[in-house]
């Protein structure tokens, strides 16, 4: 019986699941704004963990969870194995909630090539309020 179990494991293969792609960020020097009219600002600092193997670019997009129809944009950065994407890596329309804090979600999409033709390898997201 043990021999059959060993053969089954060998045929199917045994591997542990990969750790999930993770993203975190801090607003850092993001300028204060409460007019409801966002301006273009430098991106915050992002920290990554467990980036999928084969990643060549990471596409960042920000969504205002209180106003999801407003397009804040984001940017694409080349990925060379660093787990820190420094502040100012790209520009986007910054957070600028008109009445009290809003919750914003950043999504990072790992791709094997550029944004248009690259295959998605993984996705991670992180959410924070602004202002904190």
Widest sheet: strand order? 5-4-8-9
Biggest sheet record: 4 strands, antiparallel
Helical segment tally?
1
CATH class: Alpha Beta
Q: Please identify the oligomeric state.
A: single chain
Distance between the termini: 60 Å
> What share of the residues lie within helices?
under 10%
* Total domains: 1
Structural class by helix and strand composition: mainly beta
Order of helices and strands: HEEEEEEEEE
State the fourth-level CATH superfamily.
Answer: PEBP-like
What's the β-strand tally? 9
Beta-strand portion reads 35-45%
Low-pLDDT regions: 4-13
Fill in the CATH topology.
Phosphatidylethanolamine-binding Protein
Q: What is the 3D shape?
A: elongated
Average of the residue pLDDT scores: 88
Gyration radius (Cα, Å) is 19 Å
Going by CATH, the architecture would be Alpha-Beta Complex
């Amino acid at each position: 019986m043990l021999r059959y179990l060993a053969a089954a494991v060998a045929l199917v293969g045994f591997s542990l699941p990969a750790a999930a792609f993770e993203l975190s960020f801090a607003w850092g020097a993001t300028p204060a704004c409460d007019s409801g009219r966002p301006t273009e600002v430098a991106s915050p600092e992002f920290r990554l963990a467990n980036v999928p193997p084969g990643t060549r670019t990471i596409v960042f997009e920000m969504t205002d969870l209180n106003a999801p129809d407003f397009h804040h944009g984001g940017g694409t950065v080349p990925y060379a194995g660093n787990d820190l994407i420094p502040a100012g890596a790209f520009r986007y329309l910054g957070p600028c909630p008109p009445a009290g804090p809003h919750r914003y979600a950043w999504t990072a999409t790992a791709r094997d090539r550029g944004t248009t033709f690259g295959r998605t390898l993984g996705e991670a997201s992180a959410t924070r309020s602004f202002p904190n």
